[in-house]
Amino acid sequence: MTRPPPNPELLSLNTATVREKWSLREAVEGCARHGIHAISPWRDKVAQMGAKEAAKAIRDHGLTVSGLYGAGMFPGSDRKARQAAIDDTRRAIDEAATLEARCLALVAGGLPGGSKDLAGTREMVRDGIGEVLDQARAAGVPLAIEPLHPMYCAGRGCVDTLAQALDLCEELDRSGTGLGVAVDAYHVWWDPLLQAQIERAGDRRLLAFQICDWLATTRDMLADRGMMGDGVIDLPLVRSWLEEAGYRGFHEVEILSAGNWWRRDPEEVLATCRVRHQTAC
Amino acid sequence: MTRPPPNPELLSLNTATVREKWSLREAVEGCARHGIHAISPWRDKVAQMGAKEAAKAIRDHGLTVSGLYGAGMFPGSDRKARQAAIDDTRRAIDEAATLEARCLALVAGGLPGGSKDLAGTREMVRDGIGEVLDQARAAGVPLAIEPLHPMYCAGRGCVDTLAQALDLCEELDRSGTGLGVAVDAYHVWWDPLLQAQIERAGDRRLLAFQICDWLATTRDMLADRGMMGDGVIDLPLVRSWLEEAGYRGFHEVEILSAGNWWRRDPEEVLATCRVRHQTAC
What we know:
Number of strands of chain A: 9
Largest interface: A-B, 33 and 33 residues
Radius of gyration of chain A: 18 Å
Oligomer: homodimer
């Protein structure tokens, strides 16, 4: 089924896509040159120039910050490690507020070293989000729980499905003010419940939408992601589900690709993103 | 929480664990030497000696065939390819009957080359199982749908969760005669619904239980699986859920490990399996 292409104004560049070649400032300038109106930085890139300076550069170029990434890894081996993760997420909320980010994404974190206690680890995530939610509400920064692909469950993200993320939202934020989800097609495309859970989330909980593609030849578990159209995900279909649920936000291109896109000239990468957003999303 | 070790009589060797060094005959003899009372062969190993000869060797050594693996990849690009997959599964049912296997595992298969139609591919799986189910019932061979880890969705298995497999069971086999699931801890350990779905399956649908471990350092998506105890899966917990649901069948060790266990002397591998079954499962 052929679907109409998305609104090109909704394209957002996640800085991970060009992280090997460009600083945040270069990415901001690149977006402006290529007619990309939004950016979604990882925190390490923000840290290099400082949040205030980053906010100014982004504002000066007329960009929206669709989301801030790189926070929320709450599990820890002991109380001290868990408190440090909470404190780090509190700083991330401040950064997101400074950047006027539409949301702060929370990647839940994996099992603490040596642990096999998956249920207990998931409780640490729930408790961690609960700790910071009021601050996020006060700062006007919605928190977006990002379910990661189950292949990251051990090391990076023990929230693995959209259903699980939405269960957390309902447990911690029944009123629906301040907590939602980030839907990354790469992480959730395989899920038999995806359409139903996107519908369940609805506009209120759908805070971000990330795109790239799953390559049929995927070899590396972290950084072998594909440009939209080069893989097996029916991105127009997934987008249509989000739109039917009321989502009107940005489409953030996040491509971790050590062997291909990270090596290319970012000018080519951004030009390709713009084209593929129209032809494959 | 410390749980009592499992009954050592329930250990079964999946031939994939020693596939690089041993033929089926060698594996059968090895099991007998090591006091392992059951075996679960992949079909390629059976094909090398023929099903009748394999059945005789297995019987002569007093082993039970807990399951037969390597069938059920139903999706295909055209009608001819799909029919070939059904015909192949029909042959596998005959082989399983000859071997008196407790079940024939069905790995659903992934997207046909170039396809992005995941829903349509899943329909091919449903229809394929529906085509062969009566033959399996007549042959007395229960079919065990094996959900694979979502990282195999594109290329190997578009049935990715236990819930999805059980939905298929209920759609195709409401009476519960002939269709169930194979639970491989490696594929499903991350699933937030695992305990609930094992309980839902119950004794009638729980046809096989496979064990190995998910290494925290996993790099290769196919053949970097761990010996029980070397990874992050709480195998005693998962086993307890199966037992609470009424499962009394075998525990099949299936370790795909190109860099480690496949290189070792199978005598050491089997000895280690026996020990770890008692200490880490």
